[in-house]
Structure prediction request, 326 residues.
Amino acid sequence: MSHQAIESPPFPPVWKRRHLIDLESLSREEIVAILDTAEYFRQHTDGCRNKLPLLTDRTLANLFFENSTRTRNSFSLAAKRLGADTVEFSSSGSSVSKGESFIDTAKTIEALCVDLVVVRHRTPGTPKVLSECLDCSVISGGDGAHEHPTQGLLDILTIRQQRGRLDDLTVALVGDIAHSRTARSNIWGLKKLGAHVIVCGPSTLVSRRWEEVGVEVAHSLDEILPRCDVLNLLRIQFERQSTRPFPSVREYALLYAMNRERMARAKDNILIMAPGPINRGVEVTTDVADGPHSVILNQVTNGLAIRMAAIWLVCTQQRRERDGIA
Ligand code: CP
Prediction:
């Protein structure tokens, strides 16, 4: 049996953060530092299959107040790949039902000798509030329609792996931009790395205000399709909408679903992405979601590498601050 040497990634001098709350406030250099660290973990763990136990004295708590399959399980597995212990909290079945507040719940979990909390909550700003209330590190697992930074990072890592660069690529985010935290994190991250970003969808779900930050706004997928290198197909988030943004799901699919006919009019090497969960037949048809251009499952695997990087970076910075290094 071969034993993997336990060797840390190089700690990027630009990294000074104990928390990861959003991509809007990160510099291009900080984003590249996370991507490069994720790539290191991918390459030194056989694609995140093996352990690199650098954080055996650390405990991560998943604090999820909304449902999740990808984010929660990959944070949990990423922590275990690094040798850390994990605590799993879900609001359903917890003492929240007895009236315990969000902050009291978070402080209680922290008091179990937790070093890092990953929080998902329907209220925008919750990770920031926690980072100010707790002593431990905080990583956002998605807050309302605000941001989902590790999703944005894993999407960007997937594009960089497939295309070797972000500069000058045209990336369209298609669908429910108004309610998508993934869209926001993608927009900030992609723009900082030099991509041309288009947001595309019904006018009820795509605000013209994105033009103010240099994002192209489009309402016709068919018009922009021939120019796109990447399509990231976002789910319609009915659970966050107070009114119906279009007459019917069928009509939405006619105008915006990526299907075989549209693939025939796209670039030969177009990348089809989706943060998931996908609704087959709504934003993407099955033949496209499972077809040769789809990297949807590569995104999921890259979630492990990105989350290993994010956990290791914030925990290492926490240790450096305690040791008076930075
Ligand atoms: N993309 C994403 O956040 O998926 P989950 O809701 O399953 O975590």
